[in-house]
């Protein structure tokens, strides 16, 4: 048990030691790499083989999700047709610790002929890859954390960190915001919060609880039971809301010896709190919390009833 802890700690300490050297290496080449990405009219083609390829896929995904369209191209597949995906408007991010991957020796002349700029992420600063690149990101290490010095460990960590630095620096330079991030993550919780509007999650049609101004408390109670929203909207003939009546209002009325035959106009809350359909769903949630309520009618620009929303609808949509 103690040996296992020792091995794990030794690896982490070695990788952290190597990673701590990276900030001091960022200079003109890093700036040039960022500017190449920011100025490209096409896509960022990320490529690497072996462990570099695995890290490259993550770098491409990070770039794409933070506002820099990118995709991963396997070097071997590139030599058998996938180079056709690369255009003169693209730039290439090629990853090889040694800088001497055989596949790149065949790919680099073609990229040069197409005048596709190359960003090299490498530890081989005198390698063919480095010499062909317009920007070199130095990930060199003194020692792999692998005790045999064979398995990429410190070097792959440095590659990952350098890729993250590149993606986030460019993201910040673009002024990339939460809303932009959400558009590429629509299924995530952030996407649900920032992209969904009230109109996307509200109840409509027959699911809207409403009664007319001539209704009784009994009518409202039946509508409360039918829809389960937690409130009823009291509407004029033109579908504009006069007031609201909630489950809580019903309980309080009965405790005060009110009757089910009472006119709803006498016991409703007027005008009641309404939610605009154009609001973002997260704004509706904040409004619920601010007003200490759990449901509200939804209205359009003309103040007409178009839907109903309660806290459960928001939670089911991933908004909390």
List the helices and strands and how they pair.
Layout: H1 2-19, H2 22-25, H3 28-39, E1 44-48, H4 51-65, E2 70-72, H5 75-78, E3 91-95, H6 102-114, E4 118-122, H7 128-132, E5 135-138, H8 154-174, H9 178-183, H10 189-195, H11 198-201, E6 210-212, H12 217-227, E7 231-235, E8 241-246, H13 247-255, H14 264-267, E9 275-276, H15 281-291, E10 295-299, E11 305-310, H16 311-316
Parallel strand pairs: 1-2, 1-3, 3-4, 4-5, 6-7, 9-10
Antiparallel strand pairs: 7-8, 10-11
Please characterize this protein's 3D structure:
The protein has helices at residues 2-19, 22-25, 28-39, 51-65, 75-78, 102-114, 128-132, 154-174, 178-183, 189-195, 198-201, 217-227, 247-255, 264-267, 281-291, 311-316, and strands at 44-48, 70-72, 91-95, 118-122, 135-138, 210-212, 231-235, 241-246, 275-276, 295-299, 305-310. The chain is α/β, with parallel strands linked by helices. Strands 2-1-3-4-5 form a five-stranded parallel sheet. Strand 4 (118-122), helix 7 and strand 5 form a beta-alpha-beta unit.
What is the compact description of this entry?
This protein is α/β, with parallel strands linked by helices.
Main traits of this protein?
single chain, 320 residues, 3-stranded mixed β-sheet, 16 helices, 11 strands, 47% helix
The CATH superfamily name of the largest domain is Glucose-6-phosphate isomerase like protein, domain 1
Radius of gyration over all CA atoms, rounded: 30 Å
Q: Classify the helix fraction into a percent range.
A: 40-55%
Stretches with pLDDT under 50, minimum 5 residues: none
